[in-house]
Amino acid sequence: IGSAKGEFLIELASKYPKWNFVGLEIRESLVNTSERKRKKLELENLKFLFCNVNVSLEEWLADLDKDQLRRVSIQFPDPWFKRKHLKRRVLKISLLNSIARYMSKDGELFIQSDIFKLMESMTEVVDNSNYFYRKDVKGLKWLNQNPYEAMTDRELFVIKKNLPIFRAMYIRNCKLFIN
What we know:
Elements: H1 7-15, E1 21-25, H2 28-40, E2 46-50, H3 53-61, E3 69-75, H4 93-102, E4 103-113, H5 116-129, E5 132-134, H6 153-160, E6 166-172
Parallel strand pairs: 1-2, 3-4
Antiparallel strand pairs: 4-6, 5-6
Helix pairs in contact: 3-4
């Protein structure tokens, strides 16, 4: 969710040709650029779509086969600091409900940000939902590294600047399913 320039998913789709990947992005110009790259690389297991996930995701997920949604990542979303703009934040309980409803048992939700207040807000939404439990990180609050074999442009930029990144991996709680 929020695939930006698509490099993260392009790398994963190249490494895992038997998996299907979808990048969702609210900025149409980035979707068009990412789709051109995908086509040039002939990656048939990847698609980039223009949308507002808080409006479109529920309907799209309803078309998936049961247990088809295995991983969701929300990485470095816009922080929307001003109080009047908080409603624009990506990870809300309504979005989390949609993800949880269609995610396979033991599916993964990975979130990360370089903005501590935003990460606190996102983890609070997930922790309070009871749909997911945080994967054990050996007593640490945050994961030390990205668990996937690819990084976003923002992640690379933040690492280069030697700034902190806050990461959390959640696993779908198979005891709690919603209809």
